[in-house]
UniProtKB/TrEMBL annotation:
InterPro entries given in the database record: AAA+_ATPase, ABC_Ni/Peptide_Import, ABC_transporter-like_ATP-bd, ABC_transporter-like_CS, Oligopep_ABC_C, P-loop_NTPase
GO MF annotation list: ATP binding; ATP hydrolysis activity
Listed PANTHER family: DIPEPTIDE TRANSPORT ATP-BINDING PROTEIN DPPD, OLIGOPEPTIDE TRANSPORT ATP-BINDING PROTEIN APPD
Subcellular location: Cell membrane
Protein name: ABC transporter ATP-binding protein
Pfam families for this protein: ABC_tran, oligo_HPY
GO cellular component: plasma membrane
Keyword hit for Cell membrane: yes
GO terms classed as biological process: peptide transport
Keyword annotations of the record: ATP-binding, Cell membrane, Membrane, Nucleotide-binding, Transport
Length: 323
């Protein structure tokens, strides 16, 4: 593990064992690392393995899923080797997660205040009174003008954007070193999206927190990410800093994603589209997983899956075009 990396994932494989002896290789040999204070965006279509990667880091993969092999080294410890009790001390306190649908992540029968206070009392070992004061302050920081009133409200009484802010307040309550944000703005309208993402960015800078941002929205990536990893078929297909990815995408899949974005600079009759869909994880082909949808596919692409290789410093691509 490099000296200044907070999270270093190596060779992560998370497989789901289905009926008829089928194996879904949802995450298949992923390497990723994040430094303190950095935002790494994990990008790709639904079904590419982004969320399973994040759930694997949190060790929240349920049956029939299993972390098959690999290391998840966080702050010097391999999380794969921790038992449930040890891992429950890491979750919430050192690694926090914001899920894409706060209505299912927040408990509907407890007030917002109750849910923040419970987290603080459990992890910070402070009294309920101290936790209550801290919770009110957190809600203010997260943009609740009536913080005291919000403490007494239930999730269903808040709008989607406010529920997401409440989730952020719970997530940052214990000053985590790493925050995983899984599609944190999916169900929100554009102005609220921007407010929520600005808030996340502000918290990241304030607490020097590392952020793993999982999204399919490239506009969000351009605005907030330092580095980008593009994921397809359970594997990383390209990695570079955000500016480089947008200026000079190498992998045909990355190019396809960018061509599907509207641009203010050039006028086009039709936006690009990538034909087909991501294959189910138990039906990945032997060759390159993108070959059936790729305009540049060659015979060897269908024979063997290319390795992820460095094309220049800080730049990784999984494609035979760059060998």
């Amino acid at each position: 593990m490099a000296q200044n990396e907070l999270l270093d994932v190596k060779g992560l494989k998370t497989y789901f064992y289905l009926e008829d002896k089928k194996v879904a290789k949802a995450v298949d040999g992923v390497d990723l690392s994040i430094k303190p204070g950095e935002t790494l965006a994990l990008v790709g279509e639904s079904g590419s393995g982004k969320s399973i990667t994040s759930l694997s880091i949190m060790k929240l993969v349920g049956k029939p899923g299993k972390i098959q092999e690999g290391e998840i080294v966080f702050d010097g410890r391999n999380l794969v080797q921790l038992n449930d009790k040890q891992m429950s001390k890491v979750r919430g306190r050192e690694i926090a997660m914001i899920f894409q649908e706060p209505m299912t992540a927040l408990n509907p029968v407890f007030t917002i205040g109750n849910q923040i206070v419970e987290t603080l009392v459990r992890h910070k070992k402070i009294t309920k009174e101290q936790a209550h004061r801290h919770a009110v302050e957190l809600l203010r920081v997260c943009g609740f003008p009536r913080a005291e009133d919000t403490m007494r409200e239930y999730p269903h009484q808040l709008s989607g954007g406010m529920r997401q802010r409440a989730m952020i307040a719970i997530a940052i309550s214990c000053d985590p070193k790493l925050l995983i944000a899984d599609e944190p703005t999916t169900a929100l309208d554009v102005t609220i999206q921007a407010q929520v993402l600005d808030l996340l960015d502000e918290m990241k800078k304030k607490f020097n927190m590392a952020v793993l941002l999982i999204t399919h929205d490239l506009g969000v990536v351009a605005e907030y990410a330092d580095r980008v990893m593009v994921m397809y078929g359970g594997q990383i297909v390209e990695e570079a800093d955000a500016e480089t990815i947008f200026e000079d995408p190498k992998h045909p899949y990355t190019s396809g994603l960018l061509e599907s974005l509207p641009s203010l600079d050039k006028e086009v009759d039709r936006l690009g589209a990538i034909k087909g869909t991501v294959p189910p994880a138990h039906l990945f082909p032997d060759g390159c997983r993108f070959a059936d949808r790729c305009p540049f596919a060659m015979d060897k692409c269908r024979m063997a899956n290319p390795e992820l290789r460095q094309t220049e410093p800080g730049r990784m691509v999984r494609c035979y075009l760059y060998e």
